[in-house]
Amino acid sequence: MNIVIVIFVAIFGTEVIRRLLSHRERMHKMKLEQQGRAGVVAQQKLEADVIELKKRVEVLEKLVTDEAYQLENEIKAL
């Protein structure tokens, strides 16, 4: 009778362990996919910020190199 119980536990125990490990693997994959999507969104936001900052720097460069701006600074310096 003990051998029957051991065989029964061995057969069904391995199935339970296999399913548990399979479930953990699926959960891990889902977590990695979510992190990947969050990383892509963050990367897109950073790229948009860089583009916006480049535009602002262009405007500032135009203002500073403008002749009227330079002339006004020279007048103020006198």
Walk me through the structure.
This is Nitrite reductase. The chain has 2 helices and no strands. With 78 residues, the chain is mainly α.
Global shape: rod-shaped
Count up the helices.
2
The quaternary organization reads as single chain
Tally of extended strands?
A: 0
> Which stretches are low in confidence, meaning pLDDT under 50 for 5 or more residues running?
none
Rg measurement, Å: 33 Å
Q: What is the secondary structure topology, with strand pairs?
A:
Blueprint lengths: L1 H64 L1 H11 L1
Short descriptors:
0% strand; 78 residues; 2 helices; mainly alpha
How would you sum up this structure in a few lines?
This protein has helices at residues 2-65, 67-77. The chain has 78 residues and is mostly helical. The N and C termini lie far apart (109 Å).
